[in-house]
Design goal:
The complex is a heterodimer. Chain A is α+β, with helices and mostly antiparallel strands. Chain A has 25 helices and 24 strands. The chains are: A alpha+beta, B alpha/beta. Chain A: It is a multi-pass membrane protein.
Chain lengths: 785, 263
């Protein structure tokens, strides 16, 4: 073995702590970076990727078959903006159940095969429905619960003769074009039977089914609502007037599927960047510290004839060996920890990803190893350039004179034991090393602060939407629930029900207003809970008819402000209203109008009920359902579970935070180990003079208290600033003004706790070296040069 | 009373640093341990200070089995009974002279004001009070060693252990320290002194023990100025009764706390 090889081998083997810490830090850094990068990529792309893979429908329209012929429908394939078309597929709305179990009404599309040029379906279980009395349910639909399995027989309540169908499979539609699929002939048969029955008797308690055909389109450009609407208008123009009864844009589906994760993107990008920056900083800190502490050894090597170039090669190699081992391990753990994300996104969106893109791993490992090599090169080149005699003279003790003022100051602090006051002064003797430690702690604290802010802001966005415990709906009428026939009686039933806290009744309609293109959704609201579902940005909540509350995008699009009067046009009627408030409302891209139901003369379609604390929601809903039965309305509990992707992202964000905190702790550990080694002789003197192991631990722990507090304070400040900057970017990017209650995620108590978190990181990192210091034998310490 | 009985200290696989030696030191004695490098002098001192433990044998100081003390107990033992003076002073560069001197008392829990008073007295007594606010790096070698002695005396130790106290000093500074140690002994301080410096041993010690390769040499103990001490100890200044090899052939050097004491 060459002399260089021997030096490298002995350096790696003998300096075990820096070697192990370097390996661990690089491992965790690579894991964090892979996780952070994967998180950003995975949270941005799955819907779009799956949409491309399965030729998702940009536009799904419902056609009245009485007004358009198949030939006319075929002709829409050449309409402006249309790239591909599928259909017509017959549609039927059926109410199904099995025994006592009743399912909400579902829309069944008649399709002979899951394959299609538009909206290709993925069978997730079972097989495709090929024969009569067979049905395939949507895997991502409302009914994919444990209650149903292939082979389940369902009775169709609203089809004459109550035919029984067998569930033969489950399939996923990326654009959620139907709740179920059956052979086209079968759906047409149900449709025909329902129509005949409807003509014969108008049964109020039975779900009515409107005849219809579904046409699915892929468009040449569909990035914006305006582009989708333009295509919709072109298709409508190619058909007889009134034949296109409704249209669903893929943008609306994407919004529903991706939901709040869209809001997460800026958070995740910032978080991923924070992780990478922190990993780089701590790796640099650890390597620089390790090489700098070897200056005297470098002096000896030079005295023995090593050239500066050989010194650099030796120390770069010495740093790269544990770093490479750590990087390989980190790559493995990074990929393993991203598997749950991949599995979940595949499950949710139908993507077929097998893992994080290899380029992410290659980039991360190459980047981190480059940082290691560069830092080791810079530090060893500096040491290598030192005159040999100077390098040899570099003592292990700090430069005399530094930080003495701190030592004098702390020694005079009353009530502090001497070991503690000695420890408190340590950071001032090596300011650069302390600065590195503060930076490591600050990044750890910033990560935690940012993660807490992220979770708090998101939960505050969610919590206003999640207050309803029970909802009341009327039977479905086409794709939407019908209006409740006797709202006064429903309200009476709600208020009479024991456990009711409050309620909100909602009804939707389409309106137009000058300045806003196309039709807008107006929500007519009623009930004492209305204001509880929205966070106000400015102005006030509704006090009666003639007032509206809107979100920032509406104000921006229409060039209006709170206090302005605008005119809504609904069913040819002009209704003057005043904008009294600006709310944070992301529904309909922020273009939704909130108003009192009396403004538009609406009656509620859905009631959302809040219950008093301690009320059993299931029992409450069952009792209310019984009371509502004569009114033809049903009460169901509201599913409060947050979107699965959000839960997963929350969990991964927490994992990433833990990893970054571990990296910060390792950075502290490494610095304190170096510091303790540098001071081992002084430590021996202290022990010789009577310092007990407990006092030694107190001194070492005290030596990180100020850096911990400083790092914690700086980290919290950085974390809060980053959170605000990201929120501001998010606001700019999405066009929303976030309410102060969402932005101000940190109370004084939380800030204090987070700042103390820096101290916790510091103390945790110092515990191990403090134990070593306490256990070091006095005579050994005294002998150390 | 300090008793090292049948003490062996072995490091790794090499020959023992101390090989089955027995030494006794009586209160008020000043014993110089002489010998070449690697003879085991410092090891013996470390064992008495509780800084190290014997591989076999016992170390007893005033009835306390020092060889059985754990780290915390030996730290408390040093605070209470031992003052240590090192060859290279081992003053802490970050602390002022005064803070260095006060440190043992503060580690023992003495209030700062009390420690300050005691340190000021000691620094005045040792003639370095004008440097109390200075840092050790600005003092001469002799002054630093005086400060180190002041620190060693801070807790009124029953025993002062000095490891080559003049080893790093020039002649003039060495002379200062010699005088200081002589004065301390004259005041009744028990001292064990490890040194190469025969002049220092002659000046300060009432008895000498010579070590070679971890064993007490046949001319094991000498009286002041290198005078041979008879096994009966009648002629030794310190009255040490020396049994060069002992009845069982062991290395033995004992100080008789009654007979022949020259004080």
């Amino acid at each position: 073995m060459s002399a260089l090889g021997k030096v490298v081998r002995s350096g790696v083997a003998r300096r075990r702590v820096p070697t192990i810490v370097t390996g661990l830090v690089v491992m965790v850094a690579v894991t964090s970076a892979v996780l952070g990068a994967s998180l950003s990529v995975a949270s941005r792309g799955p819907f779009e990727r799956a949409f491309q893979q399965h030729h998702g429908a940009h536009l799904a329209v419902r056609i009245d078959p009485a007004k358009a012929t198949p030939a006319q429908l075929d002709a829409t394939a050449t309409a402006a903006g249309v790239a591909a078309v599928a259909g017509p597929f017959p549609l039927a709305t059926v109410s199904a159940g099995s025994g006592q179990f009743r399912m909400p009404p579902m829309e069944v599309a008649g399709r002979g095969t899951p394959d299609s040029a538009v909206d290709e379906l993925t069978l997730t279980r079972g097989r495709w429905a090929t024969g009569p009395a067979e049905i395939v349910l949507a895997a991502n639909g409302r009914f994919n619960g444990p209650l149903l399995a292939t082979g389940t027989e369902l009775t169709l309540d609203n089809v004459p003769g109550n035919p029984v169908v067998t569930v033969v499979g489950f399939a996923r539609s990326i654009t959620r074009t139907a709740d179920a699929w059956a052979p086209p002939d079968q759906v047409t048969a149900w449709q025909t039977a329902q129509n005949q029955n409807q003509n014969q008797s108008q049964n109020q308690n039975q779900t009515a089914s409107q005849p219809g055909y579904q046409m699915l389109y892929r468009l040449t450009t569909a990035g914006t609502q305006a582009q989708v609407e333009a295509a919709n208008e072109a298709i409508a123009a190619a058909l007889p007037a009134g034949s296109l009864t409704s249209a669903t844009s893929w943008l609306a589906v994407r919004r529903d599927v991706v939901g709040d994760t869209v809001l997460l993107i800026p958070f995740l990008i910032a978080f991923g960047l924070l992780g990478i920056v922190m990993a780089v900083l701590i790796v640099g800190n650890v390597i620089a510290g390790a090489v700098a502490s070897a200056t005297r050894r470098i002096g000896i090597l030079k005295a023995l004839g090593f050239t500066p170039g050989q010194v650099v090669r030796a120390y770069v190699t010495q740093a790269l060996i544990p770093a490479a081992a750590g990087a390989v391990l980190g790559l493995g753990t990074g990929y393993l920890s991203t598997l749950p994300v991949i599995t979940k996104t595949n499950d949710l969106y139908g993507t077929t990803d097998r893992g994080t893109a290899p380029w992410i791993g290659v980039l991360v490992v190459a980047g981190i190893l480059a940082v290691v090599a560069l830092t080791a090169w810079a530090a060893s080149a500096r040491a290598g350039r030192l005159r040999t005699v100077d390098a040899l003279a570099v003592g292990r003790t700090p430069h005399a004179g530094r930080g003495r003022w701190a030592s004098r100051l702390t020694s005079r602090i009353p009530l502090l034991s001497r070991p503690v006051s000695l420890g408190l002064a340590y950071p001032f003797t090596r300011p650069m090393r302390s600065a590195g430690m503060i930076a490591a702690i600050a990044f750890g604290a910033a990560s935690v602060t940012f993660a807490v802010g992220l979770a708090t802001s998101l939960s505050r966005i969610d919590e206003v939407e999640d207050i309803a415990a029970v909802q009341i709906t009327a039977p479905m009428e086409g794709p939407r629930p019908s209006r409740i026939t006797d709202p006064d009686k429903v309200v009476a039933a709600i208020t009479a029900q024991s456990g009711t806290s409050g309620y909100l009744g909602t009804a939707r309609t389409e309106v137009t207003t000058p300045g806003a293109t196309g039709q807008l959704t107006a929500m007519g609201l009623t009930g004492p809970d209305a204001s509880r579902y929205y966070r106000m940005v400015s102005g006030r909540w509704l006090r009666g008819p003639g007032e509206i509350v809107v979100a920032t995008p509406f104000l921006t699009a229409t060039g209006t402000k709170v206090g302005d009067q605008v005119t809504l046009t609904s069913e040819g009627r002009d209704i003057p209203v005043r904008i009294v408030g600006e709310a944070f409302n992301i529904d309909e891209d922020g273009m939704q109008i909130l108003t009192d139901q009396a403004t538009l003369g609406l009656t509620p379609e859905i009631y959302y009920i809040t219950v008093k604390d301690g009320t059993d929601i299931g029992t409450y809903a069952a009792a209310l359902s019984t009371a509502l039965e004569p009114l033809g309305a049903v009460a169901d509990t509201v599913d409060h579970s947050p979107p699965e992707m959000l839960v997963l992202i929350d969990a991964l964000t927490a994992l990433l935070t833990v990893l970054l905190v571990v990296v910060a702790g390792l950075g502290v550990l490494n610095t304190v180990v170096l510091e303790t080694r540098d001071r081992v002789h002084d430590l021996g003197v202290h022990k010789a003079l009577g310092m007990t192991p407990r006092q030694t631990i107190a001194m070492v722990i005290a030596s990180v208290v100020l850096t911990g507090l400083a790092g914690g304070a700086a980290g919290v400040a950085v974390g809060v600033l980053v959170q605000r900057a990201v929120l501001a970017a998010m606001g700019r990017g999405t066009g929303f003004t976030l309410p102060a209650s969402v932005v101000d995620a940190y109370g004084p108590g939380v800030v204090l706790l987070l700042a103390v978190g820096g101290l916790v990181i510091a103390v945790a990192g110092a515990l191990l070296p403090a134990g070593w210091a306490a256990r070091t034998r006095t005579v050994t310490a005294l002998r150390t040069e | 009373m300090i008793e090292l009985c049948d003490v062996t200290r072995r490091y790794d696989e090499g020959p023992p640093a101390l090989d089955d030696i027995c030494v006794s030191v009586a209160p008020g004695e000043a014993v110089a341990i002489l010998g070449p490098s690697g003879s085991g002098k410092s090891t013996l001192l470390n064992l008495v200070a509780g800084l190290d433990h014997p591989t076999t044998g016992t170390v007893t100081v005033d009835g306390v089995r020092v060889d059985r003390l754990g780290e915390a107990a030996s730290a408390r033992y040093r605070r209470a009974r031992i003052g240590l003076v090192f060859q290279f002073f081992n003053l802490l560069d970050d602390l002022t002279v005064s803070d260095n001197v006060m440190l043992p008392a503060q580690l023992a829990g003495t209030a700062r004001a009390d420690a300050e008073r005691r340190a000021a007295d000691l620094l005045a007594r040792l003639g370095v009070s004008r440097h109390s606010d200075a840092y050790p790096g600005r003092l001469s070698g002799g002054e630093r060693q005086r400060v180190a002695v002041a620190r060693a005396l801070m807790n009124n130790p029953a025993l002062l252990l000095a490891d080559e106290p003049t080893g790093a000093l020039d002649t003039a500074s060495g002379e200062e320290v010699r005088k200081l140690l002589t004065e301390l002994h004259a005041d009744g301080q028990t001292i064990i002194l490890v040194t190469h410096d025969l002049t220092l041993a002659t000046a300060c010690a009432t008895r000498t023990i010579r070590l070679l390769d971890g064993r007490i040499t046949p001319s094991a103990a000498e009286g002041r100025a290198g005078a041979r001490v008879t096994p009966s100890g009648a002629e030794g200044r310190a009255g040490a009764r020396v049994t060069p090899s002992g009845a069982e052939g062991r290395n033995r050097a004992t100080g008789d706390d009654a007979a022949g004491r020259d004080r």
